[in-house]
Every structure is written in structure tokens, then in C-alpha cells.
Amino acid sequence: MLQLAWALFVLLLLTGTCAVLASGGKVHAALLPLPLLSGAALVLYGFGVAGALRLGAGLVFLLWAAVWVVGLVKLRPAGFAKACRETLTTPGIALFLGGAAFLWVLFFALQPMFTQWDEFTAWGLAPKMVVERAAFYVADPVNLKASFTYPATSLVTFLFQPFGAWAEWACLAALDTLALACAAAATALHRQRWYSGVLVFAAGVLLPYFFRDPTPGAYATQYVNAMADLPMAMLFGGTLCLYLGTQHRRGVFWLTALPLALLTLTKDICFAYGLIAAFVIGLDWLVRAEGARRDRLVSALLHGGGLAVVVVAAFLSWSRYTAAVTPTVDTAASVGSAGLSYGAVLTGGIKQLLGIGRDEKFAQIMAAMGDAFFTRRVCLLGGGAAAVLVITLVAAAAWLAAEKGAPRRSILVMHLAFAACFAALYAFHLILYYYNFSDVEGLALKDYDRYLTPYYQAWMLTMLCRLAHQARGKLGRGALGAAAAAVMVVFCWRGVPAAGFWTAADSLYTLRTDVETRAEAMNTVLDWKDRVLVLSQGDDATRWYYYRYELTAQVVNGFGGFYGRLGETEDRWDSDFMNLVESENWTLYDYKAVCVPDTLVAYMAEKDCDYLLIDRADDYLQREFSPLFEGGLTADMPATLYHFEGEDAEVPFTVAAVAESEVQ
């Protein structure tokens, strides 16, 4: 309950801050939630680099409270109350605040949990570690397992959970709040055109469902998702919408830099997304700015280039930080198993695209990518070609509704810039499939829709925003209404999920809650400095990843292959998890670790393990390994944590904790 109350307090504090800052009339209130949230996350970023995250959170809330005090003094209580009323009746703010409060209350009631694989390997694990330990995971040896993630989602989560009490539902609600702030930025219109703001907000919120390939009957994770896809798409589109709402006011314009920096810190590919946004904004400034051509060019270079500098600075700051705090870990940017630099990959990929030394694998992937643009579903209407057609229709409607001259040129240039950058991004992903994936995964275009739909979504949101800004006459209003209605109709026709953030998903959490219950018993004994090897016979890695997420300890990787089974040689490879099997049965397992009692003990010593957790045993463990364990082992034993006493101990493993569970 405390977390919900705190979140609602943060929303209230944010709303009052927006009211005071918008009271002067220089900036539309609907534009402010996005830069304020982004700016708060960036303040946390700076303090996180310095190792003082909670101090940074305190400073953010003090600054917001100081804005309230200034507003009360400057406007007096009556004026402050009036500013708050005007802000709360602004469509974008009202929809943002109402939607965010609704999601926080709903998630508090339903308590949704993480369900996707990558949430346990990184995107959910990273914010959990940051909230619980108030430190960036890369600066903490415990958290190196999440070091490849970027910090933006963790920072936004920490803003709403600064006290160290972690809740998955609060993480999900925090990221959704950021997404709604991005949608609100598209609604910065005159009060008389409130209906346009409502339409574009509604369509923007539905875009994550519109750009997807739904599995019939599956649980929709669009707004119950800790991964970076939703924040990346919404920040990319929201930054462009924020820029469009600034109307080239020089002081207000630089608010765009805040979400742009946060976008860059969201995911590795967001370095490219950030530069694309800076490029598109620079081109649009060149078209829309007034004055002589040379003056416009200089102004466009200053503004677009300034934003590009922000992107590069944010990207380099995180790269330098991770390199500085993890000197023993390879943090250099590289691609694929060969460890090629990005420069080498781009050079080699461009040569392949031009047909210079093109090999068969690249040719096959290029053919698959060309075919996928038309056949692989990325939206409710079909493939990428259908998505681009829909976005182009919205852009055309905005162009027709706009006044002749600079407004029309601006829309055309922005749309074409988006298209050109998409073509470059598409080619870049082709190169990545060649260099960064196995032959099977590359030819199958693994996660194709997930990699590209954020771009389509941001492109569509930006064009909807442009249409809303031009929807002054009957033609424009009708076009905006038709576009928003089309998104809603297609969603209702083909995209309404059977279950989503509005429903309980208890059936998805059976294994999660089982592992969580067992881990709670183990955590009464464990500490973060402890190293634990987890064995769960018959596991496909799912339970292992759940334990790595749940245990307050360092979960040690296992191995595959043979260890000490073939004479004096060692023939094994690193693995995430392992099942112990007999040598004659190793072909029955996809993940094989042929191991005998002596080599298990040797491996525990080699990896400096403190504990061994047997989640699930089997007949092989019972028959061969029982003498090593206090009380012996049985195939149907409960999950048991054993302390490792050392190689020379008469009984190397002694019982430390036992967890009963009905699920086996």
C-alpha cells in the first residue's frame, strides 16, 4: 500500500510542477510530463554514476517541491489553485494523470508479474537490483549478470521505488507512466481543439497493440512488460512530438534534449534512434525556420547538431562508466562470436550489400529480409509494406490539411526522412543478422518483428501528431477522426487480446510462485556475497533463470560436456545451467553435464561456491551422490540448500535450508 500511495504522491507532485511551469504560457502543459520525468531520470543517472542514487531521488523531489513553493509564492494560493485547475482540465494532462493513476491502482490490485524470458535475464533483473541495492548493477559484482542492459528503465523504476522495497507491478506501472507521458506530448493543442488531443492520445495508447503480431488467445504483454521495447518506441515518438509542440520557441526547444538523452540510455540500438531523431529534427528546422537560407542552415545545424551532441554524450558516458567500473570485464562494443568492432561490421556489411565478396549466407538473409518486408506480420494489417502504407496515408492526410508552403514541405520532408532512416535501419539489421546470429537464427530472422515495430510505432505516432496539429478545418478534423477511428476499429476487429494488463494472469505464474516460495526459504540463509550453484534435474533453464532472479546471492553458471569423466582430460564448456547425467545417457539431454561425485565437489571448489541448491533431484542423484550429502538424497526430496564444507570434508554438503512445495 505504501508503494501505491508513494506513486500517487509522485503523480500529484508532478502535476503541480507542470501547473506552475505552464502558468506563464510559454509552454503547453501537456508537453511537460515527458521532459520532467526524463529530467528526473537523468538526475538519477548522474547520481547513480556517483554511487548516490537515493540522494539523487531526494534532490528530484526537493526540486519539484521547490517549484510548488515558488508557484505558491509567485501566484499566491488562489492563482496556484487556478493554474492547477487549468492544468487538470488540459486534455493531455488529464488523460495522462487519469491513465497513470488508473494503471497504478489496477496493477496494485492485480499484482502482475514478469512473464517473459528476457525479463529474468536482464530487463526485469536490472531494475530489481537497482531498486534493492540503490546502485547500478555494473558497479556491483553481484549484478554483472545484467550489465549489458542500459539504465533508463531502471532509473524510471527507481524514481517510483526509491526506498528499496521492490515490486514487479510497480516497475511495470512506472514504465507505463513514462509511455503515457510520451503520448501526452502529442496532444499539445489549443484548448478549443480538445477533441483532437483526445483522439491522438487514444490512438497513441493503442499503437503498441496495433503494431504487433498477436497469437490468438495469448496473454498480451504490451503494458505488462519490463523490456525496453515500449519505452524505446514511445520515447522515440514522444521526443519528436515534444519537438513539434515547442513550435520553435528557442528556450522551450531544448526540453527535447531530455527525453532524447533518456532514449539513448534505453537500449544499445537507441544510439542510432537518437541520432535519427536529431537528424529528422534538424531537417525539419531547416524547412520550417524563417529567414535567409544561410541563416536557416546555420540554425538547423546548431539545433540538430546540438541534439546529436546530447545523444553522443549520453552514449559515451554510459560506455565510459561501464568500462571504468568493470575493468576486468570485456565492455568493448563488439558484435558476434568473432568479437568484431561496430566499424568492422559496418564496413564488411556495406561491402556485402554492394556485392563485394558477398557470400551465400548474406545473400540468403538479404533475400529473406526482402521477402519479410511484405510477408512477416508487424501490424494488425500485415507486413512492413502495409505498415508503411498506413503511415504514409496519415502523413498524406496531414499534408493535405496543412497550409501551402513551409507547413506542407515540413510534413513531406519529415516523412521522407523517416522513410530514408528506416531503410538504413533495415539494412543495418540485415548486417546484424549476418554477423550477430547463428546461421539458423539469422536465416529465420529471429525477433524480426520485435526489432522493427518500435520504429513503425514511433513513426506512426509522429505522423498522428502532425495530423493533429494541422486538424484546424473540417478536412483536417475529419482526417484525424478517420485515422484514430481506423486504429481503434482495426484493434477491435483483429487485435483485442483475450487477456492483458486488465486481467489476472495467475495461470502464467505457477512456476514463478513455486520458485519464489522456495527461494524465500533459501534467502533466510543467503547473502549477496554468497555464491550458489543451482541444480534442477530435468529443467529447461526456466527454473534456473527464475532462481537467479529470486535468490539474494550470486548464482554460479554451470557447464556442459564432460568434467573428469575421460581420464585426466577436461572437455567441457560454459553454460548457464546444467543437468547432471550419466555418461551413457548424455545423448538424451540437450544440455548435458556428465558428472560424477568427485567432479561435482571439484567444480564447487573451482568456482568458489558457498552453497549448492538442489531444486529437484532424480534417481541418478539419489543413487550416485547421496554419500556426499548430510542425510542423503531422494528422488522426490523437497528443494534443499546445502552449505559446501570444502573438498576435504568428510561430508562436503550439510543442510542449510529446506523449502516444501506442492509443485514438482
UniProtKB/TrEMBL annotation:
Domain of life: Bacteria
Keyword Translocase: no
Keyword annotations from UniProtKB, A to Z: Membrane, Transmembrane, Transmembrane helix
Listed transmembrane segments: 53-73, 93-114, 166-187, 194-211, 223-244, 251-266, 300-318, 380-400, 412-435, 480-502
Name of the protein described by the UniProt record: Uncharacterized protein
Protein's organism: Candidatus Gemmiger excrementigallinarum
